[in-house]
Design brief:
mainly beta, Jelly Rolls, 3% helix
């Protein structure tokens, strides 16, 4: 098997790309996934990717929330983050932010909290999962 990103990494959408003016919780991403062959894939590493389009007004604070049970959520501790969570404004069109997560919580989601918006901004967030215990990763 070739050592490629395709075989070693999975990307899961948490906040779909959309024009946003209000707070939103992203879709939960489970770090333990069932593979096509019935295996349980555990991803030992994760990264939040926030990608922006046009931000017309307001400030859009992005946070990463974590959970053990996909029910009780809390902000990821700063000690478990690599890089800084972005606060997106009108000067942040067409940018990509990368924030690593080194903690052990099973479920992750992006959260946005806009303020001062009228027309808002276009952006989304993806959770990138890596260092799986089963290779190659399943694409199911």
């Amino acid at each position: 098997m070739k050592r490629t990103v395709y075989n070693h990494v999975r990307a899961k959408v948490s906040l779909a790309i959309s024009t946003r003016t209000a707070a939103a919780n992203g879709t939960a991403v489970d770090r333990q996934l069932s593979g096509a062959s019935g295996t349980n894939e555990w991803y030992g590493s994760a990264m939040l990717l926030v990608h922006t389009g046009t931000i017309t007004d307001g400030t859009h604070a992005i946070t990463l929330e974590v959970s053990d049970d996909n029910s009780s959520w809390a902000a990821a501790p700063a000690a478990d983050l690599q890089g800084s969570l972005p606060s997106i404004g009108a000067v942040d069109d067409d940018k990509l932010y990368e924030i690593g997560y080194t903690g052990t919580k099973r479920y992750l989601r992006a959260v946005t909290t806009p303020s001062g918006t009228t027309t808002g901004g276009v952006y989304g967030a993806t959770i990138l999962l890596g260092f799986p215990n089963v290779l190659p990763v399943s694409r199911t």
